[in-house]
Amino acid sequence: MLTVRSLSLLLAFGALSAVEAAPKRGRKSGQAQQQQQQQATTAFEQAQQIPQGVSTATDGSTILDTTAMVNGLPLRFKVSAPADQFTADSGVDGATQDAGAAGDLGLNVLLHGDGGQSFFDFPNQAVQDGLAGVAVLAPDPNLFWGGGSGLDRTDGVAHAQAVADLIADVMPSVVAFNSSKVSFTGVSGGSLLLSGFMLPAHMAQFASAGQESQVLLNCGGLEPQVAVSDANAAALAATRLHFQSTQQELALLQPAIPAAIAAYEQIVAGQGLDAAAVGALQTVDNSPNGGHCEFDEQDFVSGVQLMADSFSAVMQGGNGVLAGTNVNVLNPVVGNEDLSFSGAS
Hints:
Blueprint: H1 4-20, H2 30-40, H3 43-47, E1 53-56, E2 62-70, E3 73-81, E4 106-111, H4 117-121, E5 131-136, H5 156-170, E6 182-187, H6 189-202, E7 213-218, H7 230-236, E8 239-244, H8 256-269, H9 275-281, E9 282-285, H10 300-309, H11 311-315, E10 331-332
Parallel strand pairs: 4-5, 4-6, 6-7, 7-8, 8-9
Antiparallel strand pairs: 1-2, 2-3, 3-5, 9-10
């Protein structure tokens, strides 16, 4: 099975080809023409060269990697669950479920950062405290959730709708799950889509009466970029939300994350929650002395993995201590909105 390193090699090859295929005087050889074609290949197209199919997760669960068309967008996604929880039509050996069957496991849906690394790493692939892992690949040429660039996510509305519809309309045909327990993890650009578009427009689908949802926003955050309806505001007042950053966050995000914190605090306070209730529902931390997403103070990949391994401790009523450390990240947003950074990465 190809891994994220395979993707890195493909992307590096594409970058190398772009240099080699720079315009030159004279007649182009067949090799030069081939290199120009490689130069035109997008990150999304290169990602499609990595085979889909069935593999085994780190905890022995089964991973299904497949693609569905949703609202005209090709959404490639991975689901990791015990084999017998997949539907008989999924193509997974040992699958026993009927399409639409309810299951005991909820979902933890991960949206990767710009470039797609965390989709291929799939850090949340292990079943953790009743949540099966899901990761979705952005349907964008650059593998940016919400398209665009920087904080301007021009396709955010369409991408958020597609993710919501994938969960509602496609997932039941693939795996049996508890639709009342759907949570989310964002990484960098994925956190921008979640906070800017998904939460304000679709949270009522996942956190209304009788449902529970947790949202972990890693190394990214935006104020709502669309109107927040009464139903979604009420759902957010029942949604566990945590903002996680680092001391040397990207300069672009250093003002954006505190603005997002203040905006979401205001939304739930407007639903009648007092300061203590808001602080219990919404928490924030940027104590790790690392760069962008380096929550272990070492590396992007291992930092994101640390937060995935700590999801239960941080989001599901645990003690808030990151796995294998003594770092407690459960600081209430109330009084901690204005994050202090020591530098920029």
